[in-house]
Amino acid sequence: MNDLTLVIGNKNYSSWSLRPWLLLKQFKVRFKEVRIPLYEARTSALMAQYSPSGKVPVLDMGGLTVCDSLAIAETVNERFLDGQGWPGNPNLRALGRAAVAEMHSGFFALRNAMPMNCRRRVSGFKPDAATQKDIDRVCELLGDLLQRSEGPFLLGKFSIADAFYAPVASRFTTYGIAVPQEISQWMGELNRLKAMQEWLSAAQEEAETIAESEIADA
Ligand SMILES: N[C@@H](CCC(=O)N[C@@H](CS)C(=O)NCC(=O)O)C(=O)O
After folding, report:
1. Pocket test for ligand 1, best of 40, 55, 102, 199 (most atoms within 8 A of CB)
2. Which residue of 69, 82, 93, 103 shows the fewest CB atoms closer than 10 Å?
3. Which among 89, 79, 69, 80 has a CA at the least distance from the CA of 19?
């Protein structure tokens, strides 16, 4: 077995944690999991123990500690997936990398207004203008990838791009965002993955609540 430990936050709330967790699970890479409940009295002591950046996710590879979801995804791809985390087609691979980079460095309005909260269903959510702009851009980007790759996943087969956009799919469901049919089909594909179901049912069972991530019904 690989000497791998992925340190994550609450499954219900930690969108950055979901990305590498889903990637590892979907590609059947075995790893141990350490879960740090976020924003609690014990959080900073646990972070000090496991995470040099004070954030999750973190991948420990037998003493070598890799912080940040994107660095983890690329490292996992190189060391354990034989490059299969990206498609063979170089154009799709370039667009996939751009989409992942855009998510990693942007969509701040969407991330702030629509925190990931897997078990919640918010009624009457009305995005403000900046959030709507992010939603529209995400839909444009995902629609373009699905059209070029012909699905069922963003780049054809499941890839790092799906892992990076899985939290957005969860947010669209939580906040009742109407999306074009091809995106709703992609969300269905994601939700049917055994790994995704495992994450969602674990999120349901978590007892912690992070008040700032509980957006009120309208
Ligand atoms: N750029 C980082 C972001 C990581 C991040 O912000 N993680 C959040 C949880 S989803 C966190 O650890 N928050 C705790 C804190 O900021 O104190 C990544 O891609 O991994």
Report:
1. 55
2. 82
3. 69
Exposure string of 127-137, with b = 16+ CB inside 10 Å and e = fewer, is beeebeebbee
CATH node for 4-84: 3.40.30.10
**Hey, what are 126's tokens?**
């009305």
- The Cα 95–Cα 157 span in angstroms is 14
Is residue 187 a contact partner of residue 169, using CB atoms and an 8 Å limit? yes
Question: What tokens does 38 get?
Answer: 């976020």
Q: What is the tens place of the pLDDT at every residue in 86-145?
A: 999 999 999 999 999 999 999 999 999 999 999 999 999 999 999 999 999 999 999 999
The domain made up of 90-202 is a member of CATH 1.20.1050.10:
yes
* Cα–Cα dist 88/53, whole Å: 33
- Listed by start position, the domains of the chain span 4-84, 90-202
Counting atoms of ligand 1 from 1, which one is nearest the CA of 70? 19
Ligand 1 close to Cβ of residue 68 (< 6 A): yes
Whether the bond between 152 and the residue before it is cis, its omega within 30 degrees of 0, is yes
Tens-digit pLDDT profile for residues 156-197 = 999 999 999 999 999 999 999 999 999 999 999 999 999 999
